[in-house]
Write a structure and sequence with these properties.
This protein is α/β, with parallel strands linked by helices. It is built from eleven helices and seven strands. Strands 1-2-3-7-6 form a five-stranded parallel β-sheet, with helices on both faces. Strands 4-5 form a two-stranded antiparallel sheet. The radius of gyration is 19 Å and the shape is globular. The protein binds thiamine diphosphate and magnesium ion (MG).
Length: 328
Amino acid sequence: MAVEMKARVDLSAERLLDLYYQMWLVRYFDEKVDEFFAKGLIHGTTHLCVGQEATAVGACAVLEDRDKITSTHRGHGHCIAKGAQADRMMAELFGRETGYCKGKGGSMHIADVEKGNLGANGIVGGGIPIAAGAALTSKMKNLGYVVLCFFGDGASNEGSFHEAINLAAIWKLPVVFFCENNQYGMSGPAKEMIGVENIADRSKAYGIPGVVVEGNDIFEVMRVTNEAVERARNGSGPTLIEAKTYRWKGHSKSDAKKYRTKEEEQYWKEAKDPIAKMAARLLADQAATGEQLEELRVKALKEIEAAVKFAEESPMPSPDTITEDVFA
Ligand SMILES: Cc1ncc(C[n+]2csc(CCOP(=O)(O)OP(=O)(O)O)c2C)c(N)n1
Ligand SMILES: [Mg+2]
């Protein structure tokens, strides 16, 4: 594989195929959520990350098991990429007892602390100070883990972003700020809402490196994230990464997408599909055959279908547990 990276990251053909498989898992998970939400079988709300698979999978691919992430309201991909089980995630969305929050949390409250996922977050920008705090713990207790903090372009306008990034910079905390710039915060175009050309340029205000990356190219995402993780781990402090990407679906459950054009959507789907891009690269580098890639796609679809079956067959939480595992 012609990817320049520190030896620590396993880029064997086997591993790359697993990452390709994970991208399909993420895509099919959210496609199924879309389908079952429309059928009225998933309640609350959901934010889908179809089209953004390379950021979730690529960034998590260069982390160690002990490293941690904080996620967002659009977090299913992050969760799967950090090692969560699709069946327990789907059960959570279906409100079942077997889900990650025993069916009481839903899409925006899934956490998987055992795997280092400190949780999704319904507060835009809410995960950023949590990431800085977890990184401070790592530093003060000398635990050696790095925190990768996912957030959106919209979140980069929140006070929490600026406060947390400043503290992380002056204290040289082991954190990587990873912005998924999917071009919109709800209906607000990032280019109208942000006064600098690149969100990564904001790093200058905090004295840390800022990097823009093609977010639909998993190899590029892995390369820049790996560098930032190394920096964080060796005590050099945070990096701000801005990955340019696009969400194929609407913001959340009902969105007529009047703020963008069909042509723009077509462009991102046809010319910049992250899964197709990875497939093309694997084939060009002869790291996989077309048959292998097709097998992995089908295997991922089956795994997600099994996750739906698990969710549908799981019991609803019993009413007498209603006051358990909740704060108030
Ligand atoms: C503090 C806060 N303000 C507003 C909202 C409503 N809200 C939910 S998602 C969203 C847009 C976030 O945009 P971005 O950070 O770019 O993430 P994306 O949805 O594009 O993934 C907003 C404004 C919220 N949940 N929390
Ligand atoms: Mg956005």
